[in-house]
Predict the structure of RuvB-like helicase.
Amino acid sequence: MERVGTHSHIRGLGLDDALEPRATSQGMVGQLKARKAAGVIVKMISAGKIAGRAVLIAGPPSTGKTAIAMGMAQGLGTDVPFTMLAASEIFSLEMSKTEALTQAFRRSIGVRIKEESEIIEGEVVEIQVDRSMTGGSKTGKLTVKTTDMETIYDLGNKMIDSLNKEKVMAGDVITIDKASGRITRLGRSFTRARDYDAMGSDVKFVQCPEGELQKRKEVVHTVSLHEIDVINSRSQGFLALFSGDTGEIKAEVRDQINTKVSEWREEGKAEIVPGVVFIDEVHMLDIECFSFLNRALEDDMAPVVIMATNRGITNIRGTKYKSPHGIPVDLLDRLLIISTKPYEEKEINQILTIRCQEEDVEMTDEAKDLLTKIGVETSLRYSIHLITAANLVARKRKAPAVDVQDIKRVYMLFLDEKRSVQAMKDYQDQYMFNENEGSMAVDTAMEM
Ligand SMILES: Nc1ncnc2c1ncn2[C@@H]1O[C@H](COP(=O)(O)OP(=O)(O)OP(=O)(O)O)[C@@H](O)[C@H]1O
Ligand SMILES: [Mg+2]
């Protein structure tokens, strides 16, 4: 089953090849300037041009900041590491704030390791196994060919077992890694396609390889620095990767790994792929984290840091000072700032249409117009949330589509922020711990 998440309709930034934003594309609507700016950054990251830079996406609530970051992640592709965290996540009891940030940073630096291996690649002509009389050891011969040559290899016990395990038959095209002896079946040779009628539809046909049987092949893996850290930091390091229980990693381990990776880079065995750390709700970081960021961005193996916030001028957490977005000015000075703006009615309507499709909800045009109006009056997010609820109500009355009456009903059932505030004011006396001036609770507390 596919789950529908808040941003599951976002499939990219919706830009064309010249990085110009299309009005509506890949699930993205409007917010053209911000999308274009985000696209330029994605382009620079993919080209490996920037590292250690930081970007701030700032704007009012529900104007698509998180959505744009998700679009950027998709634009980067799978090879560039992208780590996403909410600023509040780093305040955990298990590790210090700076350790949590360091881990997020190192998760976002990929190391592309190149390995050259010798392989034998060809089509199997014949496998011949001789069992000894005692049954213990097996010997055999494997005949493999390319379009240009044919060779017979002697087989030992181990190779015979792995040929059996892979169910290799004459007519298969295989590769054998010479160092490890690992056998991989690439598929069946086209020339043998007619020999077997009763083959499953999942059989893959490949060409018989050309040229030499023995080849050198380059294999590339990308792992993150964090993964290398974890594997090297504990005896059961590899398992810790799966359980997520990595704990704090010693500085010495990281130093050793950095040295090793630099060596690999010099020898041409590895390349660094700087990725992205996305810190959402960045105003939740405190002054220590901010100064850590200042410093960490200057490291020569730093990723690109993207942050998002909806705060205006507010307190910097952990100090009594105020600053724009709750971010100290020395850090702000290092940021490229992308700003998002509130949506217009038409854009809200389009986003709601996309969300209805994503959630598989049928809605009449009148209902959508009303929902759009609600979106303009309250917030985009509130109106998006009403889609599912209205759909449930419509289904309950067995209607084929969500209509105006369903929207009205859920609008009455669920308060938006403004009406909730009004309700607070109207009934303030009945809530606990109410600190509003002139309320009963405060008055009695003062008298006591
Ligand atoms: N331009 C857009 N195109 C399509 N969907 C959008 C767009 N902008 C926002 N959305 C959708 O609207 C909802 C709210 O947007 P989002 O969560 O990105 O807001 P935000 O700016 O991060 O808000 P906050 O400051 O409260 O975190 C999400 O479901 C998001 O996917
Ligand atoms: Mg957000």
